[in-house]
């Protein structure tokens, strides 16, 4: 299998997620006339190209069995705490609430705005790709790593944008009613979660860098007055849970891909 063929296969797997984003008319970057799905498609194509060194034969799928990790309760505690705290701050009946936090942040930054959050959201995924290109050994094969990343982002996308359109919370700046939860933050933490699973045992600084970029993304979303703290905390929790879920959903996804490949091979 060539690098181009592998890139096409990975991108083809992502098509349902692309269609979902397009059908829902989403704009996670929240700029007029700008959509996220072309950017994400570019990332997927680029990721596929990075796997060409691993695609040495047509038996790539069948000869690299994937074993899901054991479910870790400790990995569910932090995202659950994020989500619980985020929901708690939705109400203005507590001393710690989204309105007070927003006021504190905006009072200290004096109107400062930045576009850095639009790029930091891709940071953990870019680091994941860079380490793969460099040949750094991780938990999974490069092909499985790409599949896990795609699965995590698909889950995060479905949960995040489903909630956005269901809850209808207005953004702090009043620009629209798709504030809750933060898409930038959920995708950043989904990438950081996969990065942690893949390279956490290789070097502790790798997941630290991923979570630092993800956390900075969430903070800058509040600095830019695009999100409440509730949006960011719940988005972070969704991203982490999506990454964890991907490692248990992906075996089913891979079996489907393997069967499709085998049927295609038999038909030829």
Automatic annotation (TrEMBL):
The keyword Coiled coil is annotated on this UniProt entry: no
Domain Phosphatidic acid phosphatase type 2/haloperoxidase: 146-247
Key words of the record: Membrane, Plasmid, Transmembrane, Transmembrane helix
InterPro entries for this protein: PAP2/HPO (IPR000326), PAP2/HPO_sf (IPR036938)
TM stretches of this protein: 228-253
One matching Pfam family: PAP2
Highest rank taxon of the organism: Bacteria
Protein name: Phosphoesterase PA-phosphatase related
Organism field: Fibrella aestuarina BUZ 2
